[in-house]
What does this fold into?
Amino acid sequence: MIFDADDKDGLSGVGVSPAQAQIVDPAVWAQENPPLLTREYETDAKNVARARAALAGGQAGQFDRDRFEVGRFSPATGKVMIWKFTQ
It folds into this structure.
């Protein structure tokens, strides 16, 4: 979802230093405001990533199951597994 920051009590009331606004070097920005990531944030991010990876795997598996039929090897007939594309 995309929204205007001002619609969410955003940036309109925040003052900006004209001198700091002139600094355009990202290395200086990083020194002024180092990122602070908490252990909770890291844990939550890993859990979200794992959940999304599991979902993607399940979706890929379902995609394959919906599009292929798998035969089985029969020792009695000697036939091998056949992948058959279905639409």
The CA atoms of residues 53 and 74 lie 35 Å apart. The longest helix spans residues 39-67. The mean pLDDT is 76. The beta strands are 68-70, 83-85.
